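agent> Task received from the user: take the single chain below, predict its 3D structure, and emit C-alpha cells. No templates, no multimer pairing.
agent> Plan: (1) validate residues, (2) run structure prediction, (3) serialize to C-alpha cells, (4) report one or two observations.
agent> Step 1 OK, no nonstandard residues flagged.
tool_call: predict_structure(input=
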Amino acid sequence: MSPLNLSRRQWLAASAGLLSAAAWPLWAQTPATSAKGARIVIIGGGVGGATAAKYLKIFDPSLRVTVIEKNRTYIRAYGSSEVLNQHSSMDELNVSYDALASRYGVNFVFDTVTGFDPQARTVSTAGKQILTYDRLIVSPGIQLLYDAYAGYSEAVANTAVPSGWIPGAQTALLAKQLQGMRQGGTFVMAAPPNPYRCPPGPYERPALMTEWFMKHNPTAKVIIVDPKDSFVTDQTMMLGWNRLYNFNLPEDYIKAMSPEVEIKQHAKPGMLNWVRGKDGGRPLRVDGKNMTIEIEAGVIQADVINVIPPMKAGQIALTLGLADKNGWCPVDRRNFASTLQPNVHVIGDASIADAMPKSAFAANTQAKVAARAIIEELAGRPAPEPFWENTCYALAGKDYGLFVADVFKVVEGKIARINKARYLPLDASAAQIKLAARYQQAWLRTFTDDCFA
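)
tool_result: status=success, residues=453
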C-alpha cells in the first residue's frame, strides 16, 4: 500500500515504527553478484558508515569491507537529549562494533586518516597503514562552527557553555549543569540556523528539560533563542508545549491551524519561551564567564546556556577535497558518488541531499542505497532506481510523541519528497500521541540494531 493512501491509523503505525527500521525497498533485499572480493574502505563508523558496512556484507559476503574509525565505541546522537532529563545514562548511548566484526566479517581499523590518493585509490592513517580500495565511502558527519558567535569557542563549550550536539563530554557537562541549576534559575538554549543535524532535536531538548524542571525546579525559566521563524514539526511540537507547559502559541501559528484543533490560551504562561528570529532571537555573542547571551533583542542573563552553533561537513570531508565552498559535499543523487573525487561516495549529514534532512534515519537509508549501487556498478550493471525514507521522532514530553515521516525519489535531477502526509495529525487523540512516544522509544532500539547489530 502506498504511504499516500494510508488511513490515519495506518500512517501513524507505519511512520512511527511498526514498520521496522530495517524495512527498505524490495530491490534492496535481493543479493546481487558483484566483482568478487572487491575492496571497500569506509571512513567513519557512525550510522552511515556502520550501515554501509553491514549491508555491503549482507548483499555480497565476498566483499572485503574495512571501516576506519578513530573511536572504538560509537556514541549515538539520536536520543542523547534524554541524558539531560535523566531518562537515559551516558553509558546507554554507547554502541559496540563487535557484532559488525564478528557476525558480518567487517574489518575495523581504529585510527585517524591522514592521507588520500584518489589516483592510486589509497588511504593512509596516522598508524602508518595504507589501505587500497576499489570504492571509498566517506561518512564524515558534521563539525560545529563554534566561532560563529563572538565569545564562543570549542574551549568555552568544553568548560562553561556546552553544545552537546555531538554527544560526549559536553553532553555530560550539560546534564550536570541543568540538573544542578539553582531553584528559579534560567536555562537558555540557542537553536541553530539551517541546515543542521536532526530537525526536531533542538526543540525536543528544552521541552524535555521543561518537563523535568516542573518536577524538580518549578520556578525555573526555559528560553529558546532562534535565528529562524519556524522549524520542522513546529506545529505538532508547539501543541505539545501548549498542552503540557502552558505555552501560548504565536498568533500566526494559531491562525494557520484549523479551528477544530484544540489550542489552549493560558492566562498565566508557563516557564517555556521561544524567541523567534523575527522577534530578535538570532544569537550574536556568548559570555561564558558572566553567563550571558546576546541576541538581536538584547542580552539575557542565564544560569545555564546551551549553544547549538551552525554546522558544516566533518573536517575529514574538507581534508579529502569532498566539500564545496559552502562546506557540504556535492554528490550524484542516484548513488551518492562524490562529484569532486572519483570512486568516492559521501553519505550522511555531510552530503547535499536536497529535500532529505540531516538525520540518522536519512544516513541509514542513504547507506543502503549507496551500498547496492556500488555492488551493481562493480558488476557492470546499472543500479536500480533509488528511493529513500526518513522518519524523525521527537518527544514534547515523556508520554507525548510526534514525528515527521517522508519518502523521497529523484525528480528532475534532485532528491524530492513524494508523500503528502508527513506529521502526526494536529487532531491526534491522546492515545495516538502516547503511542507515538512508545514508538520513539522502540525505534531507538530497533534502529540501533539495524545499523550495528
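agent> Step 4: summary for the user.
Confidence is low (pLDDT under 50) at residues 1-34.
agent> Done.
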